[in-house]
């Protein structure tokens, strides 16, 4: 497994491997790897001759007062996990390598899709995501890139980015990976103390309630379903909901009358930790 720290070396490595006409799969991460990340790596290994993983805590997607400086970092543990999966290369650039100018001279504005849902409480976040993903695609030049459904809004933004900027890369969205009690795996789960960890399961229970109301009870009015879901999450004293929304998973447009497919999306603070989750309900 090659550990690569510069853009020049990453491009040189790519040219050498591509001489065998092998497809390249790419898994961009911010490190602190958990089973959710590793499931993406395994999928890439199954579908490509070469797999590259990036580890880069991207400063441009963190706003003032957010957790950039304390975001979980475990370089040694991450590399051990990736080595065990026989990853071909890990791209680990420094901030100055990715952003020679501070603030960056060029950034991408994703428009309205970045100002809804998580974008309301995290203004500019998805512009930072789009900017770093565009840079990484230009550096790694993958055939396929793998992202988790847990970050649903991010996946829709990236698909829009690829379409509008004509990137020659297939975006593969993989299912949410959950703990046994339903909590979606996230690097930020490490912030939770035991009491908060137990309380955090209310996010998934709230989503499953919404699913039951729609599929089993036949409820199709968005406000009615959201009201029941909000009652459940507020029943947990440690949970402070940010939003509960029901949207079209393809474009994130809000629904008044629920039609399938529909994405139930939720964000909440458990103590001081902001968590997100979603489920997609389809006719299948």
Walk me through what this model shows.
- The protein is an alpha/beta fold and 284 residues long.
- The protein has helices spanning 7-17, 35-47, 75-84, 95-98, 118-121, 125-140, 152-165, 194-199, 202-215, 222-234; strands spanning 2-4, 24-29, 50-55, 89-91, 144-148, 170-174, 239-247, 262-270, 273-281.
- The strands form two sheets. Strands 1-4-3-2-5-6 form a six-stranded parallel sheet, with helices on both faces. It has a three-stranded antiparallel sheet with strand order 7-8-9.
CATH class of the largest domain: Alpha Beta
If strands are numbered along the chain, what order do they take across the biggest sheet? 1-4-3-2-5-6
Structural class: alpha/beta
Give the radius of gyration.
Answer: 19 Å
Enumerate the spans where pLDDT stays under 50 for 5 or more consecutive residues.
Answer: none
Number of strands: 9
The portion of residues assigned to helices is: 25-40%
State the end-to-end CA separation. 40 Å
How many helical stretches?
10
Shape: globular
CATH architecture of the largest domain: 3-Layer(aba) Sandwich
Domain count:
2
What is the H/E string? EHEHEHEHHHEHEHHHEEE
| CATH third-level topology of the largest domain | Rossmann fold
**What is the H level of CATH, i.e. the homologous superfamily of the largest domain?**
HUPs
Give average pLDDT, whole number: 96
Keyword list:
Pantoate--beta-alanine Ligase, Chain: A,domain 2; 284 residues; 2 domains; 37% helix; six-stranded parallel sheet; globular; alpha/beta; three-stranded antiparallel sheet; 9 strands; Rossmann fold
């Amino acid at each position: 497994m090659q550990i690569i720290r510069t853009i020049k070396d990453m491009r040189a490595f790519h040219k050498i491997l591509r001489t065998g006409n092998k497809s390249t799969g790419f898994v961009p991460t911010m490190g602190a790897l958990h089973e959710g990340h590793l499931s993406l790596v395994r999928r890439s290994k199954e579908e490509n001759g070469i797999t590259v993983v990036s580890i880069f805590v991207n400063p441009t997607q963190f706003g003032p007062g957010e957790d950039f400086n304390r975001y979980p970092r475990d370089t040694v543990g991450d590399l051990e996990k990736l080595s065990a999966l026989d990853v071909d290369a890990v791209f680990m650039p420094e901030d100055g390598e990715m952003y020679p100018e501070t603030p960056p001279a060029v950034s991408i504005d994703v428009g309205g899709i970045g100002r809804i849902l998580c974008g309301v409480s995290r203004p500019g976040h998805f512009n930072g995501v789009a900017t770093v993903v565009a840079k990484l695609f230009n550096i790694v030049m993958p055939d396929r890139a793998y992202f988790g459904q847990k970050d649903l809004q991010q996946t829709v933004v990236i698909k829009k980015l690829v379409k509008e900027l004509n990137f020659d890369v297939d975006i593969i969205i993989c299912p949410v990976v959950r703990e046994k009690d339903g909590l979606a795996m996230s690097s930020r789960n490490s912030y939770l103390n035991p009491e908060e960890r137990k309380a955090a399961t209310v996010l998934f229970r709230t989503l499953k309630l919404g699913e039951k109301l729609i599929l089993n009870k036949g409820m199709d009015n968005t406000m009615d379903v959201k009201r029941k879901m909000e009652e459940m999450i507020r029943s947990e004293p440690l949970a402070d909901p940010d939003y509960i929304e029901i949207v079209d998973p393809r474009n994130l447009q809000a629904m008044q009358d629920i039609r399938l497919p529909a994405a139930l999306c939720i964000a909440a603070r458990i103590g001081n930790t902001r968590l997100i989750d979603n489920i997609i309900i389809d006719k299948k």
